Amino acid sequence: MKNKRNRLQIITELLRSTVVGSQEELLNLLAERKLNVTQATLSRDLKLLKVAKTPLTNGTYKYVLPPITKTISPQGTFNHLTSHGAVLSIEFSGNLAVMKTKPGYASAIAWDIDNKGSVEILGTIAGDDTILIIPREGVTREQILTLMDITFSEGK
Amino acid sequence: MKNKRNRLQIITELLRSTVVGSQEELLNLLAERKLNVTQATLSRDLKLLKVAKTPLTNGTYKYVLPPITKTISPQGTFNHLTSHGAVLSIEFSGNLAVMKTKPGYASAIAWDIDNKGSVEILGTIAGDDTILIIPREGVTREQILTLMDITFSEGK
DNA sequence: AAATGATATGTAAAATTATTCAATTTATTT
DNA sequence: AAATAAATTGAATAATTTTACATATCATTT
Fold first, then answer.
1. Of the candidates A62, A93, A100, B71, which lies 20 to 30 Å from B137 by C-alpha distance?
2. Is the CB of A156 under 7 A from strand C?
3. Smallest Cβ distance to A125: which of B110, B125, B143?
4. Alpha-helical runs (H) found in chain A
5. Residue B124 and residue A129: Cα distance in Å, rounded?
6. What is the pairing mode between strands B52-55 and A130-135?
7. A153 touches strand D (CB under 7 A)
């Protein structure tokens, strides 16, 4: 039907916020939201979204969205750093963004981010290869990504 | 048998160098190397190694090792550090965990945490005696504690 | 609008993967 | 060393996931 786009969106949100261990579980979660599809469709959806099924330490499994990697922008604001592949990935949790970099690069890149002087970003905290980015309230993930000039691939 | 350790090593090497799309494929690759096991054992091995099955863009699947490969350490050095009392406490605020360590230990322990390659943890940022742990959305506090192999007396 | 081609989806079956149970080996304790 | 516990594995089965096929829906062209 025409709900596919919407359904895929809901699925990614669900997988981001919930531990889902099987397609049947996901099916039930969707059913609660009035989205009725068969498990076969979910198999196709997950394949499309490149969702991986991975074992957890507690002995169960979890479907995980692909990491938002693939940074590189031809000439972005952090141009020379990102174009050298120093930024490895950026992911979100709640209103926070966590950027992974090559070892040693974090504080340099964090400096760049800070010095963009974007109102959207309250501040950053850098370790060795990880930067915690604290966005202002109400700033969306997309805004952050745009700001970072990051073209990402999160499924399709 | 006693080949398990060795077999796990071979499996990680195979998965690193080859695109393996099913356990049966892996079974054949191992057989070529005189390692004869059943699919059931491989299922267990892959679970142990936290190998995820993920869809590729070409429509097929691939078994992928967890990020930052440490793979062969069943318990790892992390346990070692905590068992020596370097970790003093862990507390939560919102979806964040703050771990206190003995002075100077933070970055070492953060490194261990990162290199567990757990999908549950987005990243860590370490100071001198404090580590900020950013869990993936939807990950519970209990999961984090379990992951850390820590049994703290809850509150009280 | 009719025709054509591409998408989307359910059903059923095939394929794959996970687990139960029993047996065996290996390690630990007495 | 004997006894006991823990770990490893295979066979068979259960559970889960993928896919072939048929239909239906949607989009585009004529």
1. B71
2. no
3. B125
4. 4-17, 23-32, 39-49, 79-83, 106-114, 141-148
5. 9
6. unpaired
7. no
Tell me the domains of chain A and their CATH numbers: 4-64 (1.10.10.10), 79-148 (3.30.1360.40)
- How far, in Å, CA of A55 to CA of B64, rounded? 11
Question: Residue A98: which of B57, B118, B122 has the nearest Cβ?
Answer: B122
For A12-29, how does the pLDDT look when each residue is reduced to its tens digit (9 = 90+)?
889 888 899 999 999 999
Rounded-to-integer distance, Cα B26 and Cα A115, Å: 50
Tokens coding A123: 């501040």
Please say if the pLDDT value at position A72 is more than 80.
no
Task: Report the 10 Å Cβ neighbour count for A101.
Answer: 26
pLDDT score at A100: 85
Report pLDDT for A138. Answer: 74
B37 touches strand C (CB under 7 A): no
* CB distance A72 to A149 below 8 Å: no
Name the closest residue on chain B to residue A54, using Cα atoms.
B52
Q: Rounded distance, CA A4 to CA A16, Å?
A: 18
Q: What Å distances lie between residue B102 and A91, B110, B126, CA to CA?
A: 29, 13, 12
- The strand pairing partners of A37, in sequence order, are none
Cα–Cα distance between B42 and B20 in angstroms, integer?
12
- pTM metric for this prediction: 0.58
Tokens representing residue B61 in the block: 């699947």
The residue whose two tokens read 């190397």 is B33
Closest to B93 measured CA to CA, from B133, B53, B129: B133
A56 near B119, Cβ under 8 Å?
yes
Instruction: Give the H or E element holding residue A12.
Output: helix A4-17
